[in-house]
Amino acid sequence: MKNKFNKKYLKIILGVLILLVAISLIGPICFSRNGFLVKTKVEQYPSEYELYGTAKDNKAGTNIYLLYFGFKKINIEEEEMKFQGESIPVERKLPFLYTWRWESASAVYRIEVGSDKYYFTTIVN
Fold it and tell me: Which of 71, 85, 92, 99 is most buried by its number of CB atoms within 10 A?
C-alpha cells in the first residue's frame, strides 16, 4: 500500500517538474483576467511597429500578469510610452509572477527579458 502511495506522489511531482521545465523553455507568459496576451519575439525593436487588430479600447484598471521562470532582468514598457523613455512600474507578487496596471488605451507592451525582446498585445476581432 505504501509503495503505491509513493509512486503516485512521485508521478505527480515528476509531472509538475516537467510542466515547469516546459514553461521555462517557452519563455514569459503574459495574461490578464480576460485571457492571454499574444507574444511575438523580435530581434530588436523597430522605431515604429504596427500591430493591426490590437485592442484600442480603454481597459484602464485591469491587472496584467507576467509568468516567467527564470532569473534574467525584466523591463516592461508600453509602446506609446517608449518614445518618452518611461518604464512601467512592475510589482513582484511571487518569485516568478510579476504584475502591473493597464493604465492607458495602449494595448502593446515591449518586454525585455535579459537580451530577449518580445511584443505582447491583446487582439480583438
Answer: 99
d(CA 100, CA 90): 5
Question: What CA–CA distances, in Å, run from 60 to 16, 76, 100?
Answer: 35, 17, 11
DSSP string, 62-111: EEEEEE--S-S-EEEEETTTGGGTPPPP-EEEETTEEEEEE-SS--EEEE
- C-alpha to C-alpha distance for 63 and 101, rounded to whole angstroms: 5
pLDDT digits (tens, 9 = 90+) for 6-54: 888 889 999 998 987 887 778 888 888 777 787 877 877 765 455 555 5
Residue with cell 527579458: 113
pTM summary value: 0.69
Cα–Cα distance measured from residue 63 to residue 72, given in angstroms and rounded to the nearest whole number: 22
